[in-house]
Amino acid sequence: MSSPYEQKKHQSKGDVVWHHSTVTHQDRVLQKGQTPVVLWFTGLSGSGKSTIANAVESQLMQQGKYSYLLDGDNVRHGLNKDLGFSDTDRVENIRRIGEVAKLFVDSGSIVLTAFISPFISDREQVRKILEPDPFLEVFVDTPLDICESRDPKGLYKKARAGEIKQFTGIDSEYQAPVNPEIHIKTAEYSIEECAIQVVNKLEGLGYLKGAQ
Ligand SMILES: Nc1ncnc2c1ncn2[C@@H]1O[C@H](COP(=O)(O)OP(=O)(O)OP(=O)(O)O)[C@@H](O)[C@H]1O
Ligand SMILES: [Mg+2]
């Protein structure tokens, strides 16, 4: 079985010819005993995306599952350090993250991403990049006043003081998911409980057992 990643590359580009792997996607999936998926965490700054994604990874690790977390700031330190926050760069940022997530899915991993990703169109774009790989939108739903009172990085303070412009939730819009696959309310549940909700959903959808 060729992976969705390989299938896309059948459309060869000029002299760039796809080299098929000896170890197949199916081999990797069977080896890991799980079904790869992308969990796309979205929510305001301070809503808890990184915190919950980390807690989910810990629980998956305890179950012997393979995962990898792509976190917003970390990606901007390396792979995307040449990108700023213009519209063009924002789209390129998401495109690259989508392509990296696709590689990890090809490897058989459960991929978690933690980016504010405030616009519905951006999230739809990445869902399309990943097709036909499974993509689950995880809405980390935390009211703005709670995010602002947590302010773990001091960013709201700076945004209110006008030191950061176009800050999501303050002077830039956050477009909440309309129909997210997973909806987490961090004001009502502990970090641990929120992570359990995500893991239970993965379990319920069959991602924690071998290929479906
Ligand atoms: N139930 C909860 N779930 C998640 N985080 C919680 C919860 N209760 C309190 N917190 C706290 O809220 C903060 C969330 O910060 P975190 O860095 O995870 O947000 P983020 O969504 O990744 O923000 P950013 O987009 O700026 O990276 C942490 O300090 C965390 O300890
Ligand atoms: Mg974060």
* Distance linking N and C termini: 13 Å
Could you list the spans in which at least 5 consecutive residues all have pLDDT below 50?
none
Tell me, rounded to a whole number, the average pLDDT: 92
* Order of H and E elements: HHEHEHHEHEHHEH
Q: Estimate percent helicity.
A: 40-55%
Main beta sheet strand tally, sense and closure: 5 strands, parallel
Question: CATH architecture, please?
Answer: 3-Layer(aba) Sandwich
CATH class: Alpha Beta
Strand line-up across the major sheet: 2-3-1-4-5
In total, how many beta strands? 5
Strand content bin? 5-15%
Instruction: Tell me the CATH topology.
Output: Rossmann fold
Count of separate structural domains? 1
Structural class label: alpha/beta
How many helices? The count is 9
What's the layout of helices and strands?
Blueprint: H1 4-9, H2 25-32, E1 37-42, H3 49-62, E2 67-71, H4 72-77, H5 87-106, E3 110-114, H6 120-130, E4 135-141, H7 144-150, H8 155-160, E5 182-185, H9 191-204
Parallel strand pairs: 1-3, 1-4, 2-3, 4-5
Helix pairs in contact: 3-9, 5-6
The structure holds adenosine-5'-triphosphate (ATP) and magnesium ion.
Keywords:
212 residues, alpha/beta, Rossmann fold, 43% helix, 13% strand, binds magnesium ion
Can you describe this structure?
The mean pLDDT is 92. The protein has a five-stranded parallel β-sheet with strand order 2-3-1-4-5, sandwiched between helices. By secondary structure, it is of the alpha/beta class. The radius of gyration is 18 Å and the shape is globular. The chain has a single domain (36-204), classed as P-loop containing nucleotide triphosphate hydrolases (Rossmann fold, 3-Layer(aba) Sandwich), CATH 3.40.50.300. The longest helix is centred in the middle third of the chain and has 20 residues, at 87-106. It has helices spanning 4-9, 25-32, 49-62, 72-77, 87-106, 120-130, 144-150, 155-160, 191-204, and strands at 37-42, 67-71, 110-114, 135-141, 182-185. It is 43% helix and 13% strand. The protein is built from nine helices and five strands. It binds adenosine-5'-triphosphate and magnesium ion. Residues 43, 45-52, 72, 114, 116, 150, 152-153, 186, 189-191, 194 line the site of adenosine-5'-triphosphate.
